[in-house]
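**Paired protein data**
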Amino acid sequence: SKHSATISETEFHTLPNISVFQKPNTEQRLRALGFGYRAKYIVSAMCDVSERGGLEWLESLRKVELSEAKRELSELAGVGPKVAACVCLMSLDKHDAVPIDTHIYQVAVKYYGRPNKSLTPALHNSIEQFFQTKHGQFAGWAQGYLFYSNSKKDVKPGKTPVENKNTDKNKKLVETVNKL
């Protein structure tokens, strides 16, 4: 992938083209880079994206309703409700998409009195609708703030949010992505 920026001596690269994931031994290379069991899902999902029309198909999801975009993304191997909502929020201009993971689920239980049950797809949708009603058209970004504010227990004064997380793990992730 191409070098795109250097920030604080860390090099960042663009994401690889979809065709890179169709090369032989890609799954093995991803496993060697530390993606573990996710490697097969990444390769399979990228093949599915390619078969559906590649980047054009992904970009076409910007024009459909949030529920349709999430449904179509969830048909890809390894993509569940949270990942589909993340893609919608961060890549498809769907600012009302609310990724619900265990942390945001606990925020919903703790601060908003949502039921403390197993996080099923139906409960995921219910919590997303609640956040949309509560926080409006930018509910997904509100979720990001709530996530961050409820993960501040590890914050060290004078550090950026990235530096406050496991720095070695963050550096390894950046290095891994740069190797693709």
